[in-house]
Specification:
alpha/beta, 2 domains, three-stranded parallel β-sheet, 13 strands, binds threonylcarbamoyladenylate, binds magnesium ion
């Protein structure tokens, strides 16, 4: 994707026009493709919930061009947020902060906090720069389904007439790490490419894992998120052969997603959603996913696999 100085690429110009008109635009980020709307336009934001089939109480992530724009959306920017933004933005990290009063309830699902990130994908950055405002965007998939990591996945999800900006295959392939900084205890709400220890190294203090029991429930923390249509079963490596044999003895056709010896979590994460989509189309009765290592570098992958397999656990 090239943009010559001064002139906007035609697709970016069309996307900006659509956002200004209150329409939705799908765009690539380094994590997954997003379904974007003008974050200051509640009617446009409602279209996101309608198209995804997402409950109105489940908040969206706000995408900004730079950390300098935080002040327009956040009541108070703590030093911890500045430090994480300096280190990881633009990049696959979302911060949950106390919202500014003028932020739409439609964006935050009525909560008094707001989730924000500055994406690094060049097309997302061009779009944000050309639009000149915040873009609210959840992953561009129907509620509860696998996030799209290439433009063709978005077109598969939505048959409707939707402008989809092309940005190739997403480099990370898993949704952003989410860290809550709404009180004195930083919390990792969703693991991602930026790890808990990466966050702890910058903050110089321990980060709790998981939502506070008193916190509102939000999607991604509900079971059976990120799931293909075909049931997914996580199988320990040593039980994989037996599981395949048992399934065929029952007359079931299964697909297997292996975890090859020596595979690294970044490459695995990049390919995972495209693989689940591919296997989902085979018409098999189950997808058997070989379990991945139970070590911290695999936390984000394991989180998504266990959600995809939630109905079987
Ligand atoms: O990588 C990503 O974050 C992608 C790309 C498009 O940026 N977006 C994404 O959005 O994954 P979505 O809607 O699929 O997930 C949004 C997540 C949910 O888990 C939601 O609960 C959480 O962000 N979230 C949003 N606002 C929040 C808030 N105020 N407090 C806690 N969690 C929040
Ligand atoms: Mg999502």
């Amino acid at each position: 994707m090239s943009a010559s100085a001064g002139a906007l690429a035609p697709d970016i110009a069309a996307a900006v026009a659509a956002l200004r008109a209150g329409d939705l635009v799908a765009f690539p980020t380094e994590t997954v493709y997003g379904l974007g709307a003008d974050a200051r336009n509640p009617a446009a934001l409602r279209k996101i919930y309608a198209l995804k089939g997402r409950p109105a109480t489940h908040p969206l992530i706000l995408h900004l061009q730079s950390a300098d724009d935080l002040k327009d959306w956040v009541a108070d920017v703590p030093a911890s947020a500045r430090a994480l933004a300096d280190r990881f933005w633009p990049g696959p990290l979302t911060l949950v902060l106390p919202r500014a009063p003028e932020v739409s309830d439609v964006l935050t699902g009525g909560q008094d906090t707001i989730a924000i990130r500055v994406p690094s994908h060049p097309v997302a950055r061009q779009l944000l720069a050309a639009f000149g405002g915040g873009i609210a965007a959840p992953s561009a998939n129907r509620y509860g389904r696998v996030s799209p990591t290439r433009a063709a996945h978005v077109r598969e999800e939505f048959s409707e007439d939707l402008l989809v900006l092309e940005g190739g295959d997403c480099e990370v392939g898993l949704e952003s790490t989410i860290v809550s900084l709404i009180d004195d205890l930083p919390r990792l709400l969703r693991p991602g490419a930026i790890s808990r220890s990466d966050i702890e190294a910058v903050l110089g203090r321990p980060v709790q894992v998981g939502a506070d029991a008193a916190a509102p429930r939000v999607p991604g923390s509900t079971a059976q998120h990120y799931a293909p249509q075909t049931p997914v079963e996580l199988v320990r490596p040593e039980s994989l052969d037996a599981a395949v044999v048992a399934a065929s003895a029952r007359g079931q056709r299964v697909a297997v997603l292996p975890c090859p010896v020596g595979s690294d979590p970044s490459s695995y994460g990049r390919a995972l959603y495209a693989e689940l989509r591919r296997l989902d189309k085979l018409g098999v009765s189950r997808i058997l996913v070989e379990d991945v290592p139970h070590t911290p570098p695999w936390d984000a992958v394991r989180d998504r696999l266990s959600r995809a397999a939630a109905t079987f656990l």
